[in-house]
Predict the structure of Ankyrin repeat protein.
Amino acid sequence: MVDQLWMWIVNRDLLITSFPQRWHQPRDDPLNVLESTIEEINSNVADSPANLYDLAVLIGGRCFGTFDRSNITSDGLRFLDMFESSIGVAMDKETHLFSSFRDASQQISLDPQKRQQSLQRLERAQRLERVSTVKGEEEIVWESSHDVRQYSHLKESAIETLLDIGSETELLSEVKDIRDELDMVKMVFAQQQEALSQAHDAMEMVLGTADDPHLQAGTEVERRKITKRLDQNSRAVEHSVKEIDRMDRQAERIYKSMRDLLDLKQKYANAIEARYSRIQAEATARQAKETALQGQETARQGQTLMVFTIATVIFLPLSFIASFFDLDINEFSRTGPEQGMSLSYAAKYIFGIGLSFAVLCILFALGWSSLGPLADTIRYRLFPRGAVAHETKAELEALRELSHREHHTVAQQKAEIAGLVVGAPRSRSWKRYAANRRPSLDEHFVGYQV
């Protein structure tokens, strides 16, 4: 609440003032209207008030000059200086925040040559891995790792600076508070200007104008003196209003700068997010490509293993039969007592039996995935009861549960169709339904339980 001054002039010889006193007001308060008025009258005797109207204008001038810096000797009461100091601190913070944003953006967008040098040093450090015995390599590894860690730390700090908007938001709130308080002070000055305009009109009505023929010579001097005081008060208020407007423009510039900085940070954050999304997509594509190459390598190794397996399957029975024919057995047909068996005889059995067995094994290995369903189909068609008997216990339990549910449903249908009540005989519809009902699943599988 702003203090208000009320004055009444009664019969040109009595001046009554009403001014509220603040709570806990010290005795030597420099804003005390009575003490400041007495001090001004005593300090300037030549320009002392000539009448009550002049005194009223003097008292009003002390109230109008509350914000005048020239009339205030205490630094703690220079209100406009307080606002200007706060705006100066806000300007320093704004400059610091813009500098931090610029440095962080420069760290993110590092010179490509420096970034390439850092990557080369990192690759060299990874190749050495601290196991080289060459003199000086340990120092190179440590230096490379240190540079890379330092660059990574600076980059993370720069990203955090770019994404953090806490300081900007806080400064934006401070500047908004300053502008709101300046608007309130400006409203007080507007009321003072209105009061000064009304004081001008009142003095002209009481003292008259310079063109008034009834104006006395002494009254003309008093009127000029009072008008001079009113003009001084008006100029003081206008000067304060201009100061308020100037500080408000400075605060507005800071406010717009902070909004621009927040907008830049938002755009930069979107750019960083898009950039890292692209990097992540490239890494994912590279990983998928490596996975595909791994799959191709695995398939190639599998094919190679299959070739060796087929060769083993072919030559294993051949070598076994050849070793078997090498035994000294009387039943083998030989050309002579000291000679071996004939080529046709050995080849007939070796290649005939060995290759046949190898071909069967190869066909069985290559066609197992297609032969499995075919064998199951043949087994179910030839041995339906045996197929059911060879079902797993879990499957039979599931079938039995389904049978119980079906039996329960059938019992409910029996009751609904026959309309049975306690003690009532069964109707013909019940007998007809019982004759035509399907057997339950338990009755089908009663002989095939495991």
